[in-house]
Amino acid sequence: PVRSFVQEQFELDDAAAFLKTRMDVCESLMVQSAMIYLNHLNAGDVEYGILRTDYELPNYLEAFAFASKRLKESLDSKERDSHLKLLGSFGTAVAQYFFVTGRFREGIQFVESGIHAHQELGVYESCASGLAMLGGLYGRMHDLEKCKETIARLKQLSIEHPSRSVQALAYMNDGLMQLEGGHASEALTQLHAGVEIYRKLAEEEKHKTDNEKFNDYHTYVGNMAILLEGIGRALRQLNRSDEAILALEEAVRLQTEIDDRINIGASLHQLGNTYADKADRESAMSNYQRAIEIFFSLGYAHHLSNSLSEFAELALEEANSKTLPCASF
After folding, report:
1. Angstrom distance (rounded) from CA 32 to CA 136
2. Residue pair 231/195 in contact by the 8 Å Cβ criterion
3. Which of 101, 198, 205, 241 has a beta carbon 3.0–4.6 Å from 224's, enabling a disulfide?
């Protein structure tokens, strides 16, 4: 109540100063949410990102609502762009928070707002990243039709604004969707095309100097590793296990380089599956165990249960395969 009274009185006393102060606070929160997203929620340190966003979420939601309301008013182009940047940034950061905490339906509203804001601003790489996140949210909800619609939007964006990073995202998401649909050969074509683009982009970023404004090396390497993990799964579907292992091991190497722990766990799980196909029980169990340790440390219950289930099944087979001594009476 005190806070509401102070806000109302401040606004009555000096509406222009109140609006400027509120905008300054929102922009500070925007920078904070972007740093949490880039350094934690979208990187290896997910637990800290969740903890910080849990604490700050009411402020982010209020800032998001403020920007949404202001955009319905008559603003000059500079003011409109400032509020669109708020929506785009908060939309992406809050959607990622909902994604990693399993609240997929809530995430859709925010990422869609971010996509539309970035599109109006002409920031098409961010728009493409938002569409990729949206496809992931629908995928986790097992809504195949919405997922297909989202990938179609991403592919159209890559045609209208054919930057390499947008094209690579389109290849990646189309390939992973083909893979989920059981079309492994078609998926491989898309996934390999994405890998080649990301490999070149990552190499270019690696040679940037430290004082350059922005560096996407970690993002490009992370996406390349996700593509390689997809290639491993596709090759496994085609019964090309040895090639699958090579792709998955490269994915783990790249993910380890950038400390992408959740995806290291996912790739290790797929290595376990592939070694199990080869009847190499020892190697399969070793990879499952490493995945279990990662998922447990991160608190990823769904991933953890999958790896535990596969490990337990192999452990049971191992126990049953040993000849038990007959009891003598």
Report:
1. 24
2. yes
3. 198
